[in-house]
Amino acid sequence: MSPETILESLVSYPSVVGAPNGAIVEYVRALFASHSVPVSIIPGPEGDRSNLFATVGPTDVPGYILSGHLDVVPAKEPQWLSDPFRLRRDGERLIGRGACDMKGFVAAILSAVPDLVDLQLPVPIHFALSYDEEAGGRGAPHMIRELPNLCAAPIGCIVGEPSNMVPILRHKGKMALRVVARGVSGHSSRTDLGSNAIHKLLPALATAVQMSDALKSGPLDPFFEPPYSTLQVGVIRGGEAINIIPGSAELHVEARAIAGVDPAQLLDPIRALAGQDMDVEVLSSYPPLAMTEDHPLAGLMESLSGQASLAAVSYGTEAGLFQAAGVPTVICGPGDISRAHKPEEFVTIDELHSARSLVLSLARHLTHER
Q1: How confident is the model at residue 275 (pLDDT cuts 50, 70, 90)?
Q2: Where in the chain is CATH 3.40.630.10?
Q3: Could you give the residue numbers annotated as active site?
Q4: pLDDT band at residue 259, thresholds of 50, 70 and 90?
């Protein structure tokens, strides 16, 4: 099947982050099965969603991973011109939720499976498809922990997030927290009988603001914009009316860390505020990606893509998770990240086929290498 046809099928599954994904996983499993490619389904602890791992070639030889995620962000924006879960063509554009981020890459690599099988690869190419990446990479860690049972230690990994097919070597790490304060509600005329939950959040809010300002002085990494780690509060909720003492309140705070800085440590002062009336929950977490220009994988990706590597990007991916597990990793995929998470999201036909060509070029490289 062409990548366009596969993308049409993938988009038709509304695999929104946080929702069951059994239907789309079964579609992909059946596609591999039609070419006699063995598949491992790796369920997550949620019980209603799974990762998928498949290998073309020998599993006992070190090879390369092609990594993508099957989930998408919701598509509730009123600016969609048609059903976002029905792929629509407009000239060279293929429009639909996830077309760019990142079902386009998944469609491209799946369309190459019959060719990879025919090549009888001496070095394997693995397909690692995760769930709930859009919730901070919740699914991939369960699959990465299983890698020693699934294949020989991989040589490298290509994460196909939208990069205009330019190899990307670095991104920041991230951790996000939910801080929830509990008070005692009541009428605001008797504040002495209640306990204001919003007031209890103020130490956490003040700490976040102070740390945000302090991080601007470094450490610095000129590859990033801004060149320092950042911390910000993105959500504050609490209260019902001016004459009601708030019984609960919450804030969401995130840290994005340059390589060499642990985002969890940046948030330690806020987590230390947890106590009898305040809970702190980790919403999402992933490590930074920090590859070097002289790494063999960077050189290989430049050769395969015909593009010079880009030092760093602002957005985060699952690439840092693979690198933290000891797998050298780069980002390289079709489409532009500026189209992601927006109405009328699209990937072009040429971009799809460029991604497919890169996979086939990798396969030919592996065949000739032996």
Answers
A1: confident
A2: 3-170+288-369
A3: 71, 133
A4: confident
Per-residue pLDDT reduced to its tens digit, 114-129: 999 999 999 999 999 9
- Give the integer Cα–Cα distance in Å for 84 and 123: 38
Q: What is the crossing angle of helices 349-369 and 3-12, to 10°?
A: 120
Tell me the CATH number for domain 3-170+288-369: 3.40.630.10
Angle at 170 between CA 169 and CA 173, to 5 degrees: 150
Maximal C-alpha separation, the chain: 81
The HSE-up count of residue 88 (CA atoms within 13 Å, CB side) is 14
DSSP three-state, residue 66 = strand
* Residue range(s) occupied by CATH 3.30.70.360 in the chain: 173-286
In this structure, what token pair is assigned to residue 233? 């509060």
74 in Cβ contact with 322 (< 8 Å): no
The pTM of this model reads 0.91
Distance between CA atoms of 171 and 162, rounded to whole angstroms? 13
What tokens does 367 get?
């065949």
Q: How far is Cα 287 from Cα 263, in angstroms, rounded to an integer?
A: 8
> Residue 106 to residues 5, 7, 70, 173, 333: CA-CA distances in angstroms?
12, 8, 8, 24, 10
Tokens standing for residue 146 = 């299983």
Phi, psi of 147 (to 5 degrees): -55, -40
At how many degrees (to 10) do helices 22-33 and 103-111 cross?
20
Of 271, 195, 180, 192, give the one whose Cα is nearest residue 231.
271
Instruction: Tell me the fold of 173-286.
Output: Alpha-Beta Plaits (3.30.70)
